[in-house]
Amino acid sequence: MSSFNSLMDGFASALTLSNLGFGLLGTFLGTLVGVLPGIGPALAIALLLPITYTVSPASALIMFAAIYYGAMYGGSTTSILLNTPGESGSVMTALEGNKMARQGRAGAALATAAIGSFIAGTIATAILAFTAPSIADLAIKVGAADYVALMLLAFTTVSSLLGSSQIRGFIALSVGLVLGLVGADLQSGLARLTFGNMSAVEGIETVPVIVAIFALGEALYIASRFKKVGWNILPMKGKALMTRDDVKRSWKPWLRGTAIGFPLGVIPAGGSEVPTFLSYAVEKNLTKHPEEFGHGAIEGVAGPEAANNANAAGALVPLLALGLPTSATAAVILVAFQTYQIQPGPTLFLTDGALVWTLIASLFIGNTLLLILNLPLVRLWVQLLKVPRPYLFAGIVTFALLGSYALNTSTFDVQVAIAIGIVGFLFRRYGMPITPLILGLILGPNLELQFRRALQISAGDYGTLVASPLSKVIYLALLIVIIGPLVWNFKKKLAIKK
Amino acid sequence: MKLPQGAKSELTFVGSLFALGLLVFWDTARSEPPAFNLTVSPKVFPYAIALFLMGLCAVLFIRILRGDVATPEGLNPGDPIEKSDYKTFSIVLASLFAYLLLIERAGFIVAAFVTFFGITVAFDNKKPARAAILGSIFVLVIYISFTRFLNVALPAGILEGIL
Q1: ipTM, 2 decimals?
Q2: Residue A9 half-sphere exposure, CB side, CA atoms within 13 Å?
């Protein structure tokens, strides 16, 4: 059966009345949580996961896709009106978008962000629909040793590209790997780092770690620091509409943003920071209005927003085809799949084909619902920004603790959440990035599994790790990622000395 | 040698991460894997991760001594680091622990209310009555929508039978 027919079947199962209802609810909740300042898509999805625990898989997927797009859209609203990007992918949007809002052009900025996200999301999902199955076909031939190489590459790029300091990224990764070690070893049953605690034998759950490191960590950090600093909400005049000139200036950046965002999502390039930055740089170079950049250029919102959304859809390719998350948001999606008993990876299209196509159809539907629902409702979301900070944090923390407890109704998960909340506070205080920790926790056990599998097949010969052509290419790329920044810094230092 | 601002506390933090590496190393060394022959012992990864973490911490330790001090999130490199507000921080942290202690003993509504109220008051203690009223409404709405509509079990605790 061709991809197209499968996709149509996906639409058929996603487009029931009750599923559309879940989709609408998901869009609403996703935007509601995403629009809250300081909450990026990864946290928004993690916070809303408990809602989908008891819904059927197909309904849960469509609701989930809607939450996902809603949270992304909500994030850009906060960046434009409040200048507080909830995640690294919205930093560029905040740069020009907030300036536009200051000039009273918030409506146009929000519209170009929404429409750009819609277009990028739709194109990228279409590419995903038609490439993921063939990538999955190829991926079946990817051996255990290649997986080891791929994961090492993902670790390295995420640790060294995020944040300001490579070594701090790697330390964050190692702490995540340590967390991933906790529990009984799958192969030998050896209890590692449990210190006699029975609950710890089953390992550390990912959901409490994610909500805690973002939500509790942030609340503790803000409590220790910026108590008196208030927010400056910019008023939104008029409707979220674009003039003919705005559209004329936006459509090319939308398409270019999509072209930059998607491929950089497919390869593990460290999340949405690089593509949005690249898109911004490209638009700045190509624009006919260079004088507006830095003062509210619409291209600077249109491009990065499209790149951000296309990047998120691109990240679904390695996630669905290889089971490999390459960003915090993708990691949360992986966890969500696992709670629905779906294990992403090359065999997913064979074992759960119908469900995958339902998901892809849901992504199209969620994206469309969002555009229909959000542009008219933008004033409601703006009102949400006025929730006073004490209530905002109290609500987020209560929700995060609820999610940690409700997962297994166990206080051990709450203990873990509080401990990780403190870690999240310390990481923020000492400039360590969060995403590497999450990837370490999720992928660490997986890396060990594939490493052992590779060595079992080769009967203990370590040469197997670099035997295949694919692994050779990946290790070469790895070398470049590690040495590149070092050479770059060295050159910079030399230049400064001169 | 004069250390830059914030260096001392960061050295403590990196030192404790080094200690975490030592803990992993020690726990691995004392553990006894089952006797049957495995190609890769379950001790290999813990050892590797422990050594990796300790090595990185050692390098960062030296770098901090040389002046590479971390930039706290939300600040620009070189910004003065203001002193932490430990009072607000402690109230928020205590509110988190209150939830842990109360969730199974007193139930979700009481636990979540105490946490909500504690955090609101920590950030802004001018209007406690308003925080209490809004907090109870928020917690009740969440409890009812999760238990009645989403079938997620939350402990009723001491309010069992009333709601």
Answers
A1: 0.94
A2: 11
- Residues in chain B closer than 8 A to A164 (CB atoms): 71, 77
Single-letter amino acid code for the residue at A59 = S
Structure tokens belonging to residue A57 = 């898989």
For chain A (498 residues), the mean pLDDT of every run of 10, in chain order, is 80 84 87 80 82 77 81 84 75 86 86 91 91 80 88 85 81 96 89 89 89 90 71 64 86 93 80 83 88 88 92 87 83 83 81 84 87 79 80 90 88 95 95 90 91 90 89 89 77 74
SS3 state of residue A191: strand
Separation between Cα atoms, residue A390 and residue A411, nearest integer Å = 26
Runs of H (alpha helix) within A323-352: 328-339, 348-351
Measured between CB atoms, does B134 come within 8 Å of chain A? yes
Contact A392, A231 (CB under 8 A): no
Q: Are A117 and A356 in contact (CB under 8 A)?
A: no
What would the pLDDT profile of B133-148 be if each residue is shown by its tens digit? 999 999 999 999 888 8
In chain B, residues 47-66 whose CB comes closer than 8 Å to chain A: 49-50, 52-53, 56-57, 59-60, 63
Under an 8 A CB cutoff, do A224 and B89 touch? yes
Angle at B70 between CA B65 and CA B76, to 5 degrees: 135
Do the chains contact at B124 and A170, CB–CB below 8 Å?
Answer: no
Measured in whole angstroms, the distance separating CA A410 from the mean position of its chain's CA atoms is 27
